[in-house]
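Need C-alpha cells for this chain, all 95 residues.
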Amino acid sequence: MSRPHHATPARLHDRGRGRGRANRLPWWGTAAAVLAAVVALVAWRTAAAAPKPPQPPPAPGSTSSDVRPDPGTSEGYWTPERMREARPAPMPEDE
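Here are the C-alpha cells for all 95 residues:
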C-alpha cells in the first residue's frame, strides 16, 4: 500500500516553509524590529531618568491675590454665634 500524497517525507520536511512565507519577515527585518524596540526602550528610560529643570524661585512678597467679593454675599453667613466660634486660619511661618 502506498502512502497518501500529503504524508510524504518531502512534504514533512517542507512543513511550515512554503505556506505563509510571504507573511514572515526576513531575518534582517526581525533584527531591525528588535533593534528599533531596544532603541525606543533606551530612549524612554533615558528621558524618564533625566533630571527635571529647576523651578524658578517664587516672587518675593505676598502670594495673595486681590479679590473683591460682593460684601452683601457674606453678611448673612457671619452671624454673631459664628463669629464667636470662629478660629483664626493657620498662617505660614518664615523659616
